[in-house]
Design a protein that fits this description.
Layout (H helix, E strand, L loop, with lengths): L3 H14 E7 L6 E9 L2 H11 L2 E4 L11 E6 L1 H11 L6 H17 L6
Antiparallel strand pairs: 1-2, 2-4, 3-4
Helix pairs in contact: 3-4
């Protein structure tokens, strides 16, 4: 469990640079929940990773002139929903807040344990 200030910071960061999505799993008839944040500032990505877990990926650079870009990802319905419950009160982006609310209210009711 995060401190309120950490949850508010993370909600703002996801509002600004993150995404909340539901994706098809490759080769399966299942959906998966996913939260991602991209940044060229590794320090911020590492802070998110330390607070929440998940994993960090260095994206491929197509030019030597560009700074490296990092992506933090959190997958797994239980982990994503738990994080959304913590940050939801602090979310300010109406679109992402509505998406989070939809997932929090309906994911468990409409999805059997196997994710289909």
């Amino acid at each position: 469990m995060m401190l309120n200030t950490e949850a508010a910071w993370l909600a703002g960061y996801i509002d600004g640079d993150g995404s909340i999505s539901m994706m098809n799993q490759t080769g399966r008839d299942r959906k998966r929940l996913l939260i991602t944040v991209d940044s060229a500032d590794y320090e911020l990505i590492e802070k998110v990773h330390t607070l929440v877990g998940g994993f960090v990926i260095k994206k491929k650079s197509y030019s030597e002139r560009h700074r490296p870009v990092w992506t933090w990802r959190l997958t797994g319905a239980n982990k994503v929903l738990a994080l959304l419950e913590e940050i939801y009160p602090y979310m300010g982006c109406n679109f992402k807040r509505a998406r989070a609310k939809l997932l929090l209210d309906h994911w468990r009711d409409t999805t059997p344990r196997n994710g289909q």
